[in-house]
Amino acid sequence: MKREEYLAELKLKLEENDFGQVEEAIAYFSDLLEDRMADEGMDEEAAVASLEAPARVASQLREGQPGQGAQQPPQEDALKPGLRTITARADLVRHIRVRDRNNRLTLIGEDREDIQIRHPETEKVRYNFSLQDGSLALVREEIRISFQLFVWDVARIPREMREVEIRVPRELAAELDLRTSNAKLTLENIACWGGAEAVTSNAALTAHNLSGKSLMLKASNGSMKLENVSARSAIQAITSNARLTAERVSAPSLVLKTSNATLWVDGITSDDITLATSNGTIKGELPGSVNDYAISSGTSNAKNALPPMTTGGSRRLSAHTSNANINLWFSGKDQQG
Fold this sequence. Notes:
Strand content: 35-45%
CATH architecture of the largest domain: 3 Solenoid
Radius of gyration: 23 Å
Number of domains: 2
Low-confidence stretches: 67-79
Mean pLDDT: 86
Distance between the termini: 52 Å
Largest sheet: 21 strands, mixed
């Protein structure tokens, strides 16, 4: 059985059992499957096979709900959610690594000399923090929770607590390795001396006033917006099934890709530009003139404002989509008609 089939059947069984937190349960088991595929190297069908059947899971969840014979937690205070704050000297950190899921992840640069981390802490959501040999890590624990604890916990966590926030100096002498899933990822006002990799899934990724040696930005099934973003070597920004917007983005090598959605650019600067989508329009303005570029472009069943192939320009431009228009124009002279 595939992951989506399992989750669809589980949702149906939960609704039949009048379970009170259907969407929370589906998010939880979706995340659990993703973890088993990523961390334990299982393929999709093996990960699904490692779980109880949907009918059994739904039955256990239903039985665990308060008022259905479930044992109550012995100490109410032990389950009370809270926020934890951690600080570290920025001059001791050369690498920041975050591994999370189902929580928004926000990294903000500001006028400060330390690094401050704020994250939720509950019976279900716990993190391990470490700082050793210049590497700062915040990793969400894999907790084997009971069905009863799952039911109590999701009902108690307010939405405003579902975020990990990290505040750093604007000039950050470190590399970034940030991953979350099923939640928005935001980077803002950071000049990173090293490279930065930021990844999420099923949610949006936003980068504003971000720079680094190189940038790898990935999302899936969520929009991506880049504004005033630059790198000294290369930028790769990739998402799927959602719009990708790039404004004032520059790097020697620039790759912007999405699928089934529009790719929109304005003020991007690079000697090597790749723009790709499918079933979506590529549109916007590029600097210079059409003669500045060696162009490779193409679409199907739609209009293309670029020539399919040119040579001689000092910059490379590749623009490809399907079933949608390519509507790119140039700020300089010698416009392509």
